Amino acid sequence: MKLLVVEEDDLIATSVDFRLRKHGFEIQRVVGGELAIEAVKKAVPDIMVIASKLSDMNGLELVAYLHKLNPEIKMVYMAEIEASEEIMKSIKLGCKDFVLKPYKPDELLVRLKILLN
C-alpha cells in the first residue's frame, strides 16, 4: 500500500515512516503542498496523511486542491486538538478521517487500515 506523508516536522514524519513501514506500507515523504501535488500527479497513492501546517500552503488548501484533482484520493488530516473547526472543515473538503497531534501510532494505523478496506 502506497502512503504519501505530507509533513514538515521531521520527527513526526520519521515516526510515521518507521511505524507504518513495519506494517507493509510503502512510504513516500514530502515537505510542503507543492511537492505533494507533484507527487500525486506522478503517481496517485493509495492513501495520504496531510499535516495542517505546511510552509508553502495551508493544509486545507492542499486537501481542497487534491480533492478537485482526484475525488477518489483517500486523505487523513493531521492537526492539533485546538484546531477542531479546521478538522471538521478538512472532512467537508474531502478528507476521509483525521488524527490529532500528538498522534498515536496505533490509532493512525487502525484508521488507515479501515479506510483502505
Q: What keyword list fits this structure?
A:
5-stranded parallel β-sheet; 5 helices; 22% strand; Rossmann fold; 117 residues; 5 strands; alpha/beta
Give your account of this protein's structure:
This protein has 117 residues and is an alpha/beta fold. It has one domain (2-116): Response regulator (Rossmann fold, 3-Layer(aba) Sandwich), CATH 3.40.50. It is built from five helices and five strands. The protein has helices spanning 10-21, 33-42, 59-69, 84-93, 105-116; strands at 2-6, 26-30, 47-51, 75-80, 97-101. It has a five-stranded parallel β-sheet, sandwiched between helices.
Spatial order of the strands forming the largest sheet: 2-1-3-4-5
Oligomer: single chain
Give, in order, the helices and strands.
Answer: EHEHEHEHEH
Low-confidence stretches: none
Q: What CATH architecture label applies?
A: 3-Layer(aba) Sandwich
By DSSP, the count of extended strands is 5
Rounded mean pLDDT score = 96
